[in-house]
Amino acid sequence: MTIDSLKTPTVALGTWAWGDTGETGNGYFGSQMTRAGLEEIADKAHAAGFTLWDTALVYGMGRSETVLGEVLKRYARSDYQLSTKFTPQAAGTSGDPVADMLEQSLTRLGTDYVDLYWIHNPADVARWTPHLIPLLKSGKVKHVGVSNHNLSEIELADQILGEAGFRVEAIQNHYSLLYRSSEDAGILRYCHSHGIPFFAYMVLEQGALTGKYRPENPLPDGSNRAEAYNGMLPQLKALTDKLASIGRKQGAAAPDVAMAWAIAKGTTPIIGVTKPNYIDGLIRATRMTLADDDIAELEALADAANVNTRGWWEQVL
After folding, report:
1. 103, 217, 226, 231: which one has the fewest Cβ atoms less than 10 Å from its Cβ?
2. pLDDT digits (tens, 9 = 90+) for 252-295
3. Over the stretch 135-184, which tens digit does the pLDDT of each residue have?
4. Most distant pair of Cα atoms in the chain: their distance
5. What are 97-112's pLDDT values in tens digits?
6. Could you give all domains of the chain from N- to C-terminal order, each with its CATH number?
7. What angle do CA 183, 187, 193 make, to 5 degrees?
8. What percent of the chain has pLDDT over 90?
């Protein structure tokens, strides 16, 4: 059985925040987006060659997938890649909850296949991983990956898929200057030695590493990310100042440098895109080269900040 290799982009487009309702105080991010604004983002991304969109059923409990599906109707299906997820914690009680959740996602996304389907969290690797095999065989899923799994869970999932002639083709974990657990646990090394793409989410720590937010200008009131990050903003100032100063030398901004760092580490950052001008930053990040000294200094400043940004949904790797 031949497996077409996953076409891995330099940067993937995240739509977690597209699940917000847009009402103040109602949503993880506190983002307000319009359909026209999202179409402008998509057009700009499309023109720049960014074509992999990452979503999940649990982002707004279907809202992100629905909105994304509507926005992408303007392109031929062959012009973009879709990445979505099976979340065990939201599984139904039927005989095949994975196939059922996929069908719901396909309907919302307005497509008959997804390019990349993930098991979102490692609830029970031996139980859930085999369900991916018939979906791969049917063609409804082209490639599979695992998210938030530790190294032994990744290896078990790969073994289960391998017995049917498939493999874990991608890993997706939280990875940023402030949270390098996948590196410390040997997962990045495992990916690089096995030729497995590593997708890094929360590279900008939900905006905390953009330099835009300060104690005097905190993250949006009433949002989950404000609760998670506003208390640590004073500790992040030295790091975000350094990101900004490296950026200035290259005609770029602090978030572009944080993304370029993730790319330099051999990962594909998944960047949440909620404004059209964010696409300009992605372009700058992909063109930037960071010196080894800059990478070392950024990591030292990140360590000195001494903050823990592990999400409530994440296990210790």
Report:
1. 217
2. 999 999 999 999 999 999 999 999 999 999 999 999 999 999 99
3. 999 999 999 999 999 999 999 999 999 999 999 999 999 999 999 999 99
4. 58
5. 999 999 999 999 999 9
6. 12-304 (3.20.20.100)
7. 110
8. 87
